[in-house]
Amino acid sequence: MVFSHELLHWYEANGRILPWRETKDPYIIWLSEIILQQTKVVQGLPYFHQFIKTFPTMESLAEASEEEVLKLWQGLGYYSRARNLHKTAKYIQSEYHGIFPDTYSLISKLPGIGDYTACAILSFAFGKVYPVLDGNVGRVSTRFSGIFDPIENQTTKNKIKSILQLWIDKDKPALFNQAIMDFGALVCTPGKAICLSSSLYCPFSNWCYAYKHDMVENLPVKKQSKAVKNRYLHYYMLSNKEGLLLHKRLLNDIWKGLYDFPFCETLETNIPMEKGKLSSVAENIGSVSFLKQYTHLLSHQRLHVFFYQKELTEAQIQLWSKEYIFVPWKQIKNFAVPKVFEQFFQDFKII
Question: Is the pLDDT score of 275 beyond 50?
């Protein structure tokens, strides 16, 4: 097909050189795809290299503890990806003897793997004809074909997948998928695309519906974003000269599996203190000192994070150690913490 031919010709001259494209090892390809979910290549690349260095095989990842995996993932966000990564490695190791499955039905049932990731693995690792549909591919497809249905709708995704099945090069499915993703990332970008204004020219301008009708910035059509929820979290660094108290988050909320401080949450910006006393977290703890406030953005939450400090006596440390872990200062760096805590530790030269 003309589209495939022109796209591969463009890719030959302009495609990105990425380490996971130099192999057909499904473990490495799967790892790269999980890291790049909700993450740009430039941000994910250092994590990819560190994961491959630390866990070079499926077996080594499966044998690691969840805390080791979360620590390595620290700062990348969307920590459920890391937990599912670990679960999948353990499952493949135990159920498939460390051999990655090679059918859509089996791959799509693995934790953390949806349609896109399953198709990417089948295409890149096994050379099977499965077109991928991520944000870049969806943008290229809706603009080229003039699709005005909301791109989040499953019917729209099915329509795009049908179009991609016609476009994909049956002899070079992996190359086609890499090419169309790169084209969306480099040329057919969000907002005002590059089109004819760059050396990374668009070879489809004469055929592209959006370009011909001056509607590039209008496609793809997206549903109205969910309202952002504001949350007010008040964290108390309870410490002495030897170390501080940490707490592992186990509930199905943000940062599950990571470590933080004793805290309380309020509905508004009001500080949960009365005459300098700690409230809602503990009784008779004494006055606390306010340290700093941060604003931390998640996908649909805006976190207003307040940090306080309180020096504890040895007796108080013993009392709190029934619920929290006492960690020496030098060992804090070994615990996986939320990104906002990492920033707090750096600001106050704790790590």
Answer: no
What Rg value do the Cα atoms of the chain yield, rounded?
24
Placement of tokens 């920590």 in the chain? 79
Nearest to 114 by CA among 66, 76, 162, 80: 80
**204 CB-contact burial (10 Å; exposed 0-12 / middle 13-18 / buried 19+):** buried
- Please write the tens of the pLDDT for every residue from 319-341: 888 889 999 999 999 999 999 99
Is the backbone of residue 185 left (phi > 0), alpha (psi -120 to 50) or beta?
alpha
CA distance 202 to 15: 13
Q: Coil, strand or helix: which one is 322?
A: coil
User: Quick one: tokens of 217?
Assistant: 């910035």
- Catalytic positions are 33
Q: Return the H-helix or E-strand segment holding 4.
A: helix 2-14
Which DSSP state fits 199?
S
Mean pLDDT lowest among 74-88, 104-118, 276-290, 298-312: 276-290
